[in-house]
Amino acid sequence: MKSLLSFALLPLILAGCGASPWNSPYPAADEGRNIAYSSFTERPKHLDPAQSYSSNEIAFIGQIYEPPLQYHYLKRPYTLIPLAAAELPKAVFLDAQGNPLPADSPPEKIAFSVYEIHIKPHVRYQPHPALARDAGGNLLYRHLQAGDLAKIHKLADFPQTGTRELEAADYVHEIKRLAHPRLNSPIFGMMSEYIVGLKEYAQTLAKAQQALPPGGYLDLERYPLAGVETVDRYTYRVKLKGKYPQFLYWLAMPFFAPVPPEADRFYGQPGMAEKNLTLDWYPIGTGPYLLSENDPNRRMVLERNPNFHGETYPTEGEPNDAAAGLLTDAGKPLPFVDKAVFSLEKESIPYWNKFLQGYYDASGISSDSFDQAVRVAAQGETDVTEMMKAKGIRLQTTVTASSDYYGFNMLDPVVGGLSERAKKLRQAISIALDYDEFISIFANGRGIPAQGPLPPSIFGFHEGAAGINPYVYDWAGGRAKQKPVEYARKLLAEAGFPEGRDAQTGKPLLLYLDITANGPDDKARLDWIRKQFQKIDLQLVVRNTDYNRFQDKIRRGNAQIFHWGWNADYPDPENFLFLLYGPNARVGKEGENSANYENTEFDRLFERMKNMDNGPERQQIIDRMVEIARRDAPWIWGFHPKQYALYHAWYRNIKPNLMANNGLKYVRIDAELRARKRREWNQPVLWPLGLLFLALGAAVVPAVMVYRRKERMAARPS
Amino acid sequence: MINYILRRLLYAIPILIGVNLLTFTLFFVVNTPDNMARIHLGVKHVTPDAIAKWKHERGYDKPLMWNGAAEGAQKAADTIFFEKSVRMFAFDFGRSDEGRNISYDIRTRMWPSLAIALPVFAIGLLVNITFAMLMAFFRATYIDFAGVVLCVAMMSISGLFYIIGGQYLISKLLHLTPISGFDGGLNAFKFVVLPMAIGVIGGIGAGSRWYRTIFLEEATRDYVRTARAKGLSELAVLFGHVLKNAMIPILTGAVVVIPLLFMGSLISESFFGIPGLGSYTIDAINAQDFAIVRAMVFLGSVLYIVGLILTDISYTLVDPRIRLE
């Protein structure tokens, strides 16, 4: 029996032999190594810094590319600090004739802002075949012939690599790439409104591209861009139209990271794209990591960049950071982790179980596993459960800089418009939706009810009594309390719909909600929303639709009430308040203002506020804007989701940073502790298998006996 | 036989055109090229210019099936349908809407699919036939009855349950194999063993019951009675005669799926993190990548047709009375 079991399990034993547990998804040789393990649910579409925008793409390229600026890892509110830049650039303002203006000039007088960016010297690119040179100094793979690629299937198949120093011209090249006719940079449209000459540059490039033979290489260096120039080896200059202080935030995103023109030439050669050898697939950066394995169907691997110029862990942070152990590594060279393995994990169940087995270092919490992971005390405080504590797992929560809301289409004849009737109707509905209840039921308490368009952590947000939306909430007992439903009914009656019926026709008011709700949990959510409307005698018809139809309805203004959300691009109130700016309306202008809200005073204030520096005056204007928006109620403000994350004991230096996209370099792993815990938690259990084989063996005996008896039986007359 | 095969291949052409037309129509009824562009360009800051550019680069700015503005044959040829369909008949799948070479992806991803599908097919066939034989041997006894009840129970359980239950039991409780993942070469074994076992076990119910019915039908024939009358053992009767004569219905079900093994399993690959063609198709549908969806449907149709032809050929091998003319 024992030998039978051994034989059956032999391949398994062979595969599992070594130091790592049998169920380890990683090679035994990696056990105990300084590697961070994480996952991704969806393969990244783009790794080209001109095109990447999704968080699942920036999670990779944020560790590879180095834009001029970055966010301080520990300081709050979010603070920009230099990354590749030698210092934070300061804008020089010019009038229409090009004369310098004082820094405190009113925005309407500023025709241009010029940012001169100095980059650090001696920064070198990762080893890459695009930069490989022969003894004569010529690029080795610049003129590849058809046969040269026969044995090349991935970037690592090129035998030679090279590097060179980072230059300011590489940043200029990347800005030019935003207008490349072959690339679809998501920020081109917006940047062409600001960067001088970028729109015209795109037209020039489009014409040049048309003149090229099919597959021809468009050499951007031959075409200068008026608003962007290289000053010297380490300096470049960007000229913007008007005043746009938010440009600094964009300088912390990979869109403005350097790309060496050699890389474009290298990947632009015939035959490369057919083998998926593109910049969109194989990045080239100066950051702490390089992408050593790119198989987004299985796993992506980042490894330490041997040419990394060096950076140190921050030496200051928030007051509590030292006590939390976040400054233990202050001043030590980065990065701490040698390698980061990201495995494709599409389903939440395997992902969660692997986290519990110690094969992922950190995890979010799905609704299914919430009760297993988190304990909510009577006072609403959250902590991990005893089971998690026993494993040494820690919980960190943070309110995200995002909003989940229901919008009213302001063009709709019933719920839209700025009449008192419509405002009262929208306010009544806003009161009817109890977001405390929603968060408790559907988000496991992970969120805070929104009081307006601005989430916490964004300048302009007020905490406490000063920050409540007085049209929907009262301040009572030290917290915001939703106004009573009776008050909503009163507003509804004043709006001309007493008891939910049109005062003139007597017909019940029927409202329509457009939503894409196809998940298994959505039915309960939709039932809840209907119930909220019923509280004030309103009937809600849910028009559940697919994403494409939904987008069409929003774009054409055919929706009445709709579900929407927004994640901050950067920590500035402009990035939220522009969602309510009239000229940014969705209908007709293809903007991000999906509610098509338009209030002249709000728009005027927005134009003043958007270019101001943070300060009391800006705060005053924001307060006024928020008050107007609350009164007009173009959105049911919804809630700001709270991010819950679990970390194993061996995963250190973790502080959630919603803006920074290059956090991997700060993370430290205690690989020895992890290996020990993994072995402890994943001892193979063999006895059930033995029992199974025993049961099968036991079943064979009577079967053989029955067979023999049957064979010996005499024939029966039929 | 050659003529027969050639004729069948020629029949395949209108079928493939029809499948292609159906895929095209269904896809574009749900998604307009504008929608596809929006999905690919992301949800933020998508301008009409960017959408127009995206469509132009991929040829989605042309009329769908009929170009009224063109002249002569170009009315049909200068359309999205024609341009995207014709090349596929030369197995040139082109590029996905996100720019990757589809043929390259298919070549790479079919191996992980095969690593699971082939053993599941072969072992599953063996297990199902053996189990069905066992039930046929003990027909009309409690063992047969218990076997049928077990089969019905097993086929009533959702495939997803086997996957989640298997992962829970084998990987989470017993710690014997990784819950999900994949690796190349011999290292793949520890990743494929669980999906393989689940695939085999999940298929026992329906497969064994189907084969049992076939065997029982054969077991009542005259030649079986004759064999028994001549004193052959029951095992010799079952394996030497019944199985041989039951091969045609078995082959009908089995050979046709052999080529389709390349296409992988949609659900299993997603749950086990297997980078095969099944998850490739699912990802493409979710991402509204028409180029991949079209290529995979076309490939699936071709493989199905190949499977049917192979089935016909296999009949001649197991039954000498059959001639393909």
Q: Could you walk me through the main structural features you see in this protein, from its secondary elements to its overall organization?
A:
- The complex is a heterodimer of chains A (718) and B (325).
- With 718 residues, chain A is α+β, with helices and mostly antiparallel strands.
- Among the domains of chain A are: 246 residues, Dipeptide-binding Protein, Domain 1 (Dipeptide-binding Protein, domain 1), CATH 3.90.76.10; 242 residues, Dipeptide-binding Protein, Domain 3 (Dipeptide-binding Protein, domain 3).
- Chain A has 20 helices and 27 strands.
- In chain A, 41% of the residues are buried.
- With 325 residues, chain B is mostly helical.
- Chain B folds into two domains: 89 residues, no CATH class; 208 residues, MetI-like (MetI-like fold, Orthogonal Bundle), CATH 1.10.3720.
- Helix content of chain B is 71%, strand content 0%.
- Chain B is globular, with a radius of gyration of 25 Å.
- The N and C termini of chain B lie close together (6 Å).
- At the A-B interface, helix 1, helix 4, helix 8, helix 15 and helix 20 of A face helix 2, helix 3, helix 6, helix 8 and helix 9 of B.
How many β-strand stretches of chain B? 0
Largest sheet properties of chain B: none
Query: Could you say which overall geometry of chain B the principal axes of the C-alpha atoms support?
Result: globular
Tally of separate domains of chain B: 2
**What global shape of chain A is seen?**
globular
Task: Please give the CATH architecture of the domain at 42-279 and 305-312 in chain A.
Answer: Alpha-Beta Complex
Compute the CA-based radius of gyration of chain A: 30 Å
Question: Strand percentage of chain A, roughly?
Answer: 15-25%
In CATH, what is the class of the domain at 42-279 and 305-312 in chain A? Alpha Beta
**Oligomerization:** heterodimer
Low-confidence parts of chain A: 1-8, 13-17
CATH topology of the domain at 42-279 and 305-312 in chain A: Dipeptide-binding Protein, domain 1
CATH homology group of the largest domain in chain B: MetI-like
Give the averaged pLDDT of chain B, no decimals. 87
> What's the tally of helices of chain A?
20
**Strand pairing plus helix content of chain A: what structural class?**
alpha+beta
**Alpha carbon gap, first and last residue of chain A:** 43 Å
Secondary-structure element string of chain B:
HHHHHHHHHHHHHHH
As a percent range, the share of strand residues of chain B is: under 5%
Based on the coordinates given, report the CATH architecture of the largest domain in chain B.
Orthogonal Bundle
